[in-house]
């Protein structure tokens, strides 16, 4: 690609980013599907629906300087302070010095990858929420992200709502001090945010109702949850029979193991957190 063409594309993106919509309108359609433009558009349209993150600090890690600078510019009024890093080693040094409340990092970076950074941090810190950004959807990455107890694994181009949900979830985690991924015993892990049940390389995607069931049982710490409470919280006010709940439990047992959810006769259900 010629230098003149590169400069033209760069100018188009900058016009778009600074909101000169009508000036950029002729070109927007042709460049909208590019990864960079999608990425910038996400941050440009990002709204203030998050859970009051302004008192928190963010470490944003991205090796592409232009993406990093613009992302930080659009996120800066959402956080008390944002620290920038261009690779995993620089990010880890900043993390050790500043101890940010939240980390958003790309995976593919020089010197130390995003997953390498997460591994170093998780050796001493299980709590700081981390969101991974990547252009790849490899199963091995997803499994590693679950193992490292990451908040979210976002695939580029990043959708506004997905980023919004991920940051909201991260702030919720900070405030509740709860883990995103819970060990259910017998080698199974439950990732409530991503609706996943995982054992080694086996990944089961949960339906919304299945996810609600496990989330309620896990939230109660292995204690028995009554049929009435389960019905109310799973079906959100709609009447459902005990047979409907039994069907959910039966499906969960089929995709995991029989004792993952225990029935307490005439009382309710409890999740087995001990294996």
Assembly type of the chains comes to single chain
Biggest sheet details: 5 strands, parallel
Q: CATH topology of the largest domain, what is it called?
A: Rossmann fold
> What is the number of helical segments per DSSP (H or I, 4+ residues)?
11
Classify the secondary structure makeup into a structural class: alpha/beta
Using the CA coordinates, give the radius of gyration.
22 Å
Strand content: 15-25%
Can you summarize this structure?
The protein has helices spanning 3-17, 21-31, 35-45, 65-75, 88-98, 114-122, 139-147, 160-176, 208-219, 227-235, 242-255, and strands at residues 57-61, 81-85, 102-106, 130-134, 152-155, 181-185, 188-191, 196-199, 202-205, 225-226, 261-264, 268-271.
Provide an overview of this structure.
Residues 4-36 and 42-51 have low confidence and may be disordered. This protein has eleven helices and twelve strands. It has helices spanning 3-17, 21-31, 35-45, 65-75, 88-98, 114-122, 139-147, 160-176, 208-219, 227-235, 242-255, and strands spanning 57-61, 81-85, 102-106, 130-134, 152-155, 181-185, 188-191, 196-199, 202-205, 225-226, 261-264, 268-271. It folds into three domains: 1-31, no CATH class; 33-176, Response regulator (Rossmann fold), CATH 3.40.50; 183-271, Orthogonal Bundle (Arc Repressor Mutant, subunit A). It starts with a helix and ends with a strand. Strand 4 (130-134), helix 7 (139-147) and strand 5 (152-155) form a beta-alpha-beta unit. It has 275 residues and is an alpha/beta fold. The strands form three sheets. The protein has a five-stranded parallel sheet with strand order 2-1-3-4-5, with helices on both faces.
């Amino acid at each position: 690609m010629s230098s003149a063409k590169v400069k033209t594309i760069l100018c188009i993106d900058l016009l778009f980013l600074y909101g000169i919509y009508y000036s950029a309108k002729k070109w927007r359609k042709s460049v909208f599907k590019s990864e960079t433009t999608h990425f910038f558009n996400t941050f440009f349209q990002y709204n203030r629906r998050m859970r009051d993150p302004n008192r928190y600090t963010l470490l944003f890690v991205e090796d592409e300087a232009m993406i990093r600078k613009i992302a930080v510019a659009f996120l800066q009024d959402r956080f008390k302070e944002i620290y920038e890093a261009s690779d995993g080693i620089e990010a880890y040094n900043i993390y050790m010095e500043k101890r940010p409340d939240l980390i958003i990092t790309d995976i593919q970076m020089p010197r130390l990858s995003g997953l390498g950074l997460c591994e170093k941090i998780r050796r001493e810190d299980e709590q700081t929420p981390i969101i991974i950004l990547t252009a790849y959807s490899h199963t091995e990455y997803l499994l590693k992200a679950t193992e490292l107890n990451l908040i979210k694994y976002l695939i580029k181009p990043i959708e506004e709502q997905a980023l919004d949900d991920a940051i909201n979830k991260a702030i919720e985690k900070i405030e509740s001090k709860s883990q995103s991924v819970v060990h259910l015993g017998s080698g199974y892990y439950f990732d409530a945010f991503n609706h996943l049940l995982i054992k080694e390389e086996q990944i089961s995607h949960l339906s919304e109702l299945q996810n609600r069931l496990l989330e309620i049982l896990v939230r109660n710490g292995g204690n028995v949850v009554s049929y009435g409470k389960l019905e109310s919280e799973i079906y959100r006010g709609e009447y459902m029979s005990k047979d409907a709940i039994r069907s959910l439990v039966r499906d969960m047992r089929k995709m995991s193991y029989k004792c993952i959810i225990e029935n307490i006769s005439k009382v309710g259900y409890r999740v087995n957190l001990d294996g």
